[in-house]
Amino acid sequence: MTEQDTYKTITSKTLNVLFKDKNSKFFGYAFPVLNENDVKKHIETLKKEHHSARHWCYAYKIGREKVFFRANDDGEPNNSAGMPIYNQIQSFEVTNILIVVVRYFGGVKLGVSGLINAYKTTAQMSLEASNIVEKTINIEYLISFDYKNMNTVMRIIKEKKLNVVNQELEMNCKITVSVRKKNAETVFNIFDKLYEIKIKKV
């Protein structure tokens, strides 16, 4: 079994998907996020934008190999909102994503099963409206060498089609390259065997 080195995420925010049930309105939003600060900012913005709403329920998933997630019912009955949203994130196999469903209460109680359906459906609609892309998991290496070894290093970078993230080309040269995870060990070994060239993981 080959180790997976790709993941799916969304490229930009998806706004204002609307689901209605018995006069209650559920607005769905999806955001790409990299950390909890991103999550907080988006939720604060939505609370200002929808200040008269009743609930701002959400779920997020961050990380690729080590995954961190949270589901929040925000005052709705236990597991009737956050988990149905999170289950859709799992179903679409995406990460680095936040989905918020903003609810305006319409005066008629939906019951737990009605709420689960509403939050699940709104999250699903948000994901269906999102631009989901597949990205590779990459590892960055710092290659250090003297200027005289420049041609050797550049030849390997070109041959292996490595992505140069950063470079300082002076007497003591440093180049940071990004390597797809499945090729990382091979690339490391090529540079590691070369005399006067050092490589280390960033």
If you had to describe this structure to a student in words, what would you say it looks like?
The chain is an alpha+beta fold. The chain folds into two domains: 6-135, Impact, N-terminal domain (Ribosomal Protein S5, domain 2); 137-201, Alpha-Beta Plaits. The chain is built from five helices and eleven strands. The chain has helices at 36-49, 82-91, 111-128, 150-159, 181-192, and strands at 6-10, 14-21, 24-32, 55-62, 68-72, 97-104, 132-136, 138-146, 163-168, 172-180, 197-201. The strands form three sheets. The protein has a five-stranded antiparallel sheet, with helices on both faces. A four-stranded antiparallel sheet has the order 9-10-8-11. A two-stranded antiparallel sheet has the order 1-7. Helix 2 runs parallel beside helix 3 (111-128). The mean pLDDT is 92. One of its GO terms (biological process) is regulation of translational initiation.
The CATH homologous superfamily of the largest domain is called Impact, N-terminal domain
Helix fraction by DSSP (H/I, runs of at least 4): 25-40%
How many independent structural domains?
2
The tally of helices reads 5
Distance from N terminus to C terminus (CA atoms, Å) equals: 27 Å
What does the largest sheet look like? 5 strands, antiparallel
The largest beta-sheet arranges its strands as 2-3-6-4-5
Overall 3D form: elongated
Order of helices and strands: EEEHEEHEHEEHEEHE
Q: What is the CATH domain class of the largest domain?
A: Alpha Beta
- Could you please say which CATH topology of the largest domain applies here? Ribosomal Protein S5, domain 2
- Unreliable stretches: none
| Number of DSSP strand runs | 11
